[in-house]
Amino acid sequence: MIVAIKGGLGNQLFQAAFALVLQRHTGRTVWIDARDFPNRGREFMLDRIGCKLPVASEKQIFSERWASSLPIAKARHWMNRLTGAGTVEPGIFREPERWCYHESVFTQHPRTYFSGYWMSLRYYPEGFPGESEFPFLGEDWPDGLQPLAKDIADCESVGVHVRRGDYAADPRIRADYLVCGSEYYRRSMSRLAERLPHPKFFLFSDDEDFLRSVDWGGLNVTVVPAVSGVGDEHYLRLLASCRHQIISNSTFSWWAAFLNRKPERIVVCPDRWRVSIPTGELVGELIPEDWLLESTPLN
Question: pTM for this one?
């Protein structure tokens, strides 16, 4: 079995978690396909978080994509391609619908190639992988983050992830993905300020200039700076180390909130995950039931 890896760190963590659960469920070695990198500025990061899943070779990938099919299925595939009647892909299991659970993944042929994102919580009834599978969760802090990590640990810290980047810059992406504006973050921060004693808000973003341009209404905020040589995996851990989180519609901040195991934690997320998808429809699949939803104006 081979699982395709693609996207940013948050997506890669979902795909690696799925591969590990598939391995646990079937008792077979599951390999990963990392050929998509580098792609559109994305880097393969699973090796940087200590994930030990083996990387498949080109020859092995080609074999997996075909070996689970009968010869007649291969012949039908090529006939369909020649006649334009379809593109049957023997040996490949493509995720039918993102954010939904598909029980049939666990009954596929042992030599199946899996392509998808695998974001449903229901894939993981025994829990997500922890430090034994993702050792970076227990690493010491890099020198440049140690003062921030201590500050976060010593106060009523709220990690706020402001995702902009391609969400804000690319019109094609904006048409599908919701860009959470400053109004959403201010309202969420005020909501927690009413519930928590003297909260301190740590702002994480791929656009520091935007953070510094916003009037945060007198709230106690710290803009987390980019430190040279410190990778995204450490910022995800730092965001997760906060006592509470306010997240964007991003798998990066989703993982930070999900990895926060503090029993008193509060997580706030936007009430729309995409322009066409209310977050409420994803509760129990992608969104844990105890997370709070805050209204987010459409773009």
Answer: 0.88
